[in-house]
Design brief:
Layout: H1 16-32, E1 37-38, E2 41-45, H2 56-62, E3 63-64, E4 70-71, H3 73-77, H4 79-87, E5 95-103, E6 106-115, E7 120-126, E8 133-140, H5 144-156, H6 160-171
Parallel strand pairs: 2-8
Antiparallel strand pairs: 1-2, 3-4, 5-6, 6-7, 7-8
Helix pairs in contact: 1-4
């Protein structure tokens, strides 16, 4: 069976400002309000600092750049894809790995989801208490250097979905039914 991604959002570049409320509603309805879980932990969306009354996470999903962020229409058109990937993260077409990364807050376990045919990337970061994952960002990769890093990490970093399977196998065959 093949993943069938949601349709791309049809957006007029010239009406970006007018479309913001609709895009924000999609974000709230698909990512913020539902309790999506990955690897048995809920996903949270960073709210602060808000900009123009909208969560920081939302801006990371539809814009690019640092520190000044500008609209990224590839991200915007694929806003539906983020929740879809997270809801279907166990599908074999989605490549997944984990890696400890250094952030401005120190070391953090990150979970990466990759759709190779679409070059679409979703990144989660585990909170300090290890009780949830924060949605960091999602986007289409277009830079060769980023693609090389992804290929390196895919081949050298463990898939956390298999860790769960290995743990279940160690604890007995009755737990295997909960793995993919």
């Amino acid at each position: 069976m093949s993943l069938v991604l949601p349709d791309l959002i049809d957006i007029d570049i010239n009406k970006y400002t007018e479309e913001l409320e609709n895009l924000y509603r999609i974000y709230l309805d698909e990512l913020y309000i539902p309790q999506i879980e990955v690897l048995g932990k809920p996903i949270t969306c960073r709210q602060n600092p808000e900009d123009a009354g909208k969560h920081e996470c939302f801006w990371h999903l539809i814009t690019e750049g640092d520190p000044e962020r500008t609209p990224d229409f590839n991200r915007i058109r694929r806003l539906h894809w983020c929740a879809y990937v997270l809801l279907h993260y166990t599908d074999r077409e989605i490549v997944c790995w984990e890696k400890e990364c250094t952030t401005h807050k120190g070391k953090q376990r990150r979970i990466f989801f990759w759709l190779p045919n679409e070059k679409y990337y979703v990144i989660l970061g585990e909170n300090r208490a290890k009780t949830s994952f924060e949605l960091i960002t999602a986007y289409c990769v277009s830079y060769y250097g980023t693609l090389r890093c992804i290929q390196r990490d895919m081949s050298s970093c463990p898939d956390p979905r298999f860790k769960k399977a290995e743990t279940a196998q160690e604890n007995g065959p009755e737990n295997l039914s909960t793995t993919w």
